[in-house]
Amino acid sequence: MDIEAFRKAGYQAIDRICDYYATMQDRPVVSQVQPGYLLETLPESAPEHGEKFEEIADDFQKLILPGITHWQHPNFYAYFPTANSFEGLLGDLYSSSVANPTFSWLASPACTELEQVVMDWSAKLFGLGDRFLCKSKVGGGVIQTTASEGAVVVCVAARARYMKMNPSAKLEDLVIYTTTQTHSLGTKAGLILGLDVRALEVKAEDEYALRGSTLKEVLEADLARGKRPFVVLATVGTTSSGAIDELEEIGEVLRDHPSIWYHVDSAWAGVAFACPEFRSVGKLDAINKYADSFCTNFHKWGLVNFDASALWVTDRTYLTDALDVTPEFLRTKQHDAGLVVDYRNWHLGLGRRFRSLKVWFVLRSYGVEGFQKHIRKGIEANKHFVALVKKSPEFELVTTPILALTVFRLALPTSAADGGLPAVNDLNRKLYARLMEHSDKLYLTQTMLNDVFCLRFAIGAQRTEVAHIDQAWKLVKANGQAVLQELERN
Ligand SMILES: *Cc1c(COP(=O)(O)O)cnc(C)c1O
């Protein structure tokens, strides 16, 4: 493809992307294809001779789009939002245009320095303390691919720090602490690093938050039997129910254990810190006071298209001590002189994408004010949803709604109260199965909170308006009533 052909194909691509967004609402939310649909359609090997680009582009429309679940659809309420923006999309386009792996400052000074700038901007946007700023020259932020990779990086740094402070410790005794509500990133970090992971219990009466007392008890018992907990992965806004661990209590317990790293994962909820009124809900003060590292994903609720996971640490030397790889051919005068950041030593890969560009585009185009407006809109929309649930006696909230996430279920009618938890779980499984039959109209996901089966309603897509929520609720309610009627009949 030459420049003029690219110009033509590029214009067409932008036109088609605009049409895609303009018609989003009329598309089925969840892809309706059957397993193997594409495997059976596409040839088994790459073509021997190059094909015309028009045909390739057409096949994206014809073959790929039907197999896409539209996360940007206004009636997408599953998992977590992935609020996209055109600014972010353009950022990725420009980033691709200068395609480079930017592993050292010299490999592309703009990539490194822009990342430092946007990470400092973002730290201030979210109210993080000065010790997290790149400008501090001690701490600093880095954009990781995902929160899960960020957690592995954190565990590697935490392990290095722990071993430095406890040289006699044996690696096989190290333990990563999570809770039963922690995202699978904790388990995965343990698998990758070959370390034990211990999921601490959390209780329904604490809204599934980790308490300092639980941590203290387990910690003391583990230490007594020779175990070496070296990192606590706490969460602000768990994936299942938005639970917020008791960060202050945890911080106080860890005060007596300075070699244990304290990480706060706020992959979904953290961007809400952009609004000062949500900082106390998410316990930002405790993060600033105690945490060694903090993570939130721009690529969820934060208007930047996947991927852009923001990770801050208060002491960058633990990352670089643990991950520094500087063979001769990567050495530069600027690195040797300690003048620059070489981000390859802050993450798992060597090469890295130029992600700061899309974050920069978004923050500049929206401004702090626009970013806040987007977050508040989601939270207001959730209040509307909560009011609808509360107005319907057939339904009940399972946990206190948090930010833009509501966990709810059908309540067991008094006539069937004998059935207890199995009966109400069964009822809700039936409701969920029915809703999945309408996955062209809306998409929400289920979860288990300890033994309770519930439905999650996660708001935050860019184009979700109150009218969409009304529409979605109508469908949920009608199906809920149908399930209850079925119960009455049997
Ligand atoms: C979504 C989520 C993650 C995982 O995010 P990735 O960036 O996909 O790894 C981790 N923790 C929480 C609380 C999440 O909501």
Automatic annotation (TrEMBL):
GO terms for biological process: amino acid metabolic process; carboxylic acid metabolic process. The keyword Lyase applies. The keyword Metal-binding does not apply. Keywords: Decarboxylase, Lyase, Pyridoxal phosphate. Its cofactor is pyridoxal 5'-phosphate. One of its GO terms (cellular component) is cytoplasm. It comes from the Eukaryota. Coiled coil: none annotated. The modification N6-(pyridoxal phosphate)lysine is found at K300. InterPro entries: Aromatic_deC, PyrdxlP-dep_de-COase, PyrdxlP-dep_Trfase, PyrdxlP-dep_Trfase_major, PyrdxlP-dep_Trfase_small. SUPFAM superfamilies: PLP-dependent transferases. Pfam families: Pyridoxal_deC. GO terms for molecular function: carboxy-lyase activity; pyridoxal phosphate binding. Belongs to the group II decarboxylase family. This is Aromatic-L-amino-acid decarboxylase.
